[in-house]
UniProtKB/TrEMBL annotation:
Any Pfam family hit: Adenylsucc_synt
Family from the record: Belongs to the adenylosuccinate synthetase family.
Gene Ontology molecular function: adenylosuccinate synthase activity
Keywords annotated in UniProt: Cytoplasm, GTP-binding, Ligase, Magnesium, Metal-binding, Nucleotide-binding, Purine biosynthesis
Protein's name in the database: Adenylosuccinate synthetase
Binding-site residues for Mg(2+), renumbered to this chain: 13, 40
Binding site for substrate: 298-304
Pathway: Purine metabolism; AMP biosynthesis via de novo pathway; AMP from IMP: step 1/2
UniProt: IMP binding residues: 13-16, 38-41, 129, 143, 223, 238, 302
Length: 429
């Protein structure tokens, strides 16, 4: 048996929900290891649709679900999400949900700062969701964060609040915002403490015990590898490491706990928010892909930018995440195109590159070099075997494998769970 890390191989929104749900049914433990409630998975189980933004996907199947220390946790958002699931018939108890005691918290002051920055008109707008993710990670790195375990000692909490506010109130004054009184922040935390503390645990010990017992562990990433704070399209990235290696850091298990990395990869490319997007389409084809693919954010509802498949970018994430195989999703959205383009390299100032340069200025100026592939007229929707696919669709899949240097382990042909072609089960390596 193996432990599996699932990451998005593009800018997120690759259709991870269906794949992680399928894998979570086979797993014993599902771990969320980075990000906050700014990303999410949509799970379709029977006639019920669940939209998760913080809770691990295994929660809807009653699997032991763990929020690791690499996540930044908005305790009020967590309580609200648990309540929403209860309305859908899913009861979340401390028996199936455990949260790392050293998980940093997102507070109202983080949301304030995030939104203040995003409303700036000086060209520094990143395109965040305004949910306080970045500022919370800043406080973690700045060693002034309030962590979940701090709610268990309210007497000692006041001094930690004072240290945090000495930083944030200075920022607020500089931006013409009123200061926050220590008692206000204390009450914000004290009121939610009894609601979230029952879920707190020593997750490192818990996961080590499960691993030694032979349990299958699924590490579930949010967003995509191209939004990684180090390896993504900086500065238009998220504030955490989204590559597969972060599963070890964000859960407390060593890297030898990872046996297989599955990269979820859309058959075309989308992006939400600001930042470079070499293959973006601003024409009727781009609109057609967006409409057919229902390309709107799970959490925010924001329309996604759409473009052709970028093999050069996915090649990069194959390297940075050590991806063993990909789950190719939404192939059916490309049905009916006469010609499909795939970016194989870039051109910049007369030179060709097989990767996206790290420079922000260069990323904004590169021109994609396309390879044209003949499309197909038949339908790939709901296909459950290779024999159900048009021959030209199979050629497209095989060409993608060649260009990115990784095999297709799973092929998804609709949001429905059973509309899947399994080549290799990541848990059985």
């Amino acid at each position: 048996m193996a432990n599996v890390v699932v990451v998005g191989s593009q800018w997120g929104d690759e259709g991870k929900g269906k794949i992680v749900d399928w894998l979570s049914e086979q797993a014993d433990v599902v771990v969320r290891f980075q990000g906050g409630h700014n990303a999410g998975h949509t799970l379709v189980i029977g006639n019920q649709t669940y939209k998760l933004s913080l809770l691990p996907s295994g929660i809807v199947r009653g699997k032991l679900s763990v929020i690791g220390n690499g996540v930044v946790l908005d305790p009020h958002a967590l309580v609200a999400e648990i309540g929403k699931l209860a309305e859908q018939g899913v009861t979340v108890t401390p028996k199936i949900l455990r949260i790392a005691e050293n998980t940093p918290l997102i507070l109202s002051l983080h949301r304030d700062l995030d939104r203040l920055r995003e409303s700036a008109t000086d060209g520094t707008r990143i395109g965040t969701t305004g949910r306080g993710i970045g500022p919370a990670y800043e406080d973690k790195v700045g060693r002034r964060a309030i962590r979940l375990m701090d709610l268990a000692d309210l007497d000692a909490l006041r001094s930690k609040i004072g240290r945090l506010l000495s930083h944030h109130n200075a920022l607020r004054r500089g931006n013409g915002q009123p200061e926050i009184a220590p008692e206000t922040l204390y009450q914000e935390l004290a009121s939610v403490a009894p609601l979230v503390l029952p879920y707190m645990d020593n997750v490192v010990a818990l996961l080590d015990k499960k691993r030694r017992a032979g349990n299958r562990i699924l590490f579930e990433g949010a967003q995509g590898a191209l939004l990684d704070i180090d390896h993504g399209t900086y500065p238009y990235v998220t504030s955490s490491n989204t590559v597969a290696g972060a599963a070890a850091i964000g859960s407390g298990l060593g890297p030898n706990a990872i046996d297989y990395v599955l990269g979820i990869t859309k058959a075309y490319t989308t992006r939400v928010g600001e930042g470079p997007f070499p293959t973006e389409l601003h024409d009727e084809i781009g609109r057609r892909i967006g409409e057919r693919g229902h390309e709107f954010g799970t959490v925010t509802g924001r329309p996604r930018r759409c473009g052709w498949f970028d093999a050069a970018l996915v090649r990069q994430t194959i390297r940075t995440s050590g991806i063993d195989g990909i789950a190719l999703t939404k192939l059916d959205i490309l049905d009916g195109f006469d010609t499909i383009k795939v970016c194989v390299r870039y051109r910049l100032d007369g030179e060709e590159y097989d990767h996206l340069p790290a420079s922000q200025a260069a990323q904004e100026r590169v021109e994609p070099i396309y390879e044209e592939i003949e499309g197909w007229k038949g339908s790939t929707a709901h296909a459950r075997s290779w024999a159900d696919l048009p021959a030209q669709a199979i050629k497209y899949v095989r060409r993608i494998e060649e260009l990115i240097g990784a095999p297709v382990a799973i092929l998804s042909t609709s949001p429905e769970r059973d509309d899947t072609i399994l080549v290799r089960n990541p848990f059985q390596v």
